[in-house]
Amino acid sequence: MCFPFKKLDGELPFPEEKPDYKRNVGNTNLASTIMVFFVKYEVPEKNWDFFNGVRENIQDTEEMLVELDGSLFYLTPDGQVVLIPAGTVSQLRLMKIRPEFTLPGIYGHEFCHPLWDMLTDDEEIEFQTKFNELRLIERSLLKKAWDLKPYMRTTIVEAHADTYRYLGKYMPNELKPYYTMLF
Ligand SMILES: [Zn+2]
């Protein structure tokens, strides 16, 4: 089988990036890797402070706190250890990320999670309704991402995050109000 997956992925505005295995906790400057994300995804400068992890302590949940974690894992309900690139506890606005994965697309995905948490219940339902209509439109970028990226199809929260990750500003305008700090 020779399915041209990479070529199709490359048709998305922000295709998946390769991890950089030369990065480790000792040689990775978190702030500069976040800056690469801000520039690539054109995040409004007035919101940089919210995302850039300068918060002093974990109790202060006004802003995001980003930490490097060289051995990040997730324990499944049946006790399996699964290594993960990054994870965010939305309520604490705390994000952990493995140094190899300090990449714009990973930040883009994770930064959406606290924003989703800030939506009202009605807004979440509105987003879901609009999303489920828009993803059916033939030859749209959103349909392409939906078809190519199985993780988008796991939950609406992951669909919200991956829509930004793969489409950025090229997502449908109707969805942008649900990513307030990023546009
Ligand atoms: Zn996620």
Defining key terms:
binds zinc ion; three-stranded mixed sheet; 183 residues; alpha+beta; two-stranded antiparallel ribbon; single chain; 7 helices
Question: How does this structure look, described?
Answer:
Helix 4 (104-118) packs across helix 7 and helix 6 (141-148) packs across helix 7 (156-167). The radius of gyration is 16 Å and the shape is globular. The chain contains seven helices and five strands; from the N terminus they run H-H-H-E-E-E-E-E-H-H-H-H. With 183 residues, it is of the alpha+beta class. The model has no long low-confidence stretch (mean pLDDT 91). The structure holds zinc ion. The site of zinc ion (ZN) has 4 residues, from helix 4 and helix 7.
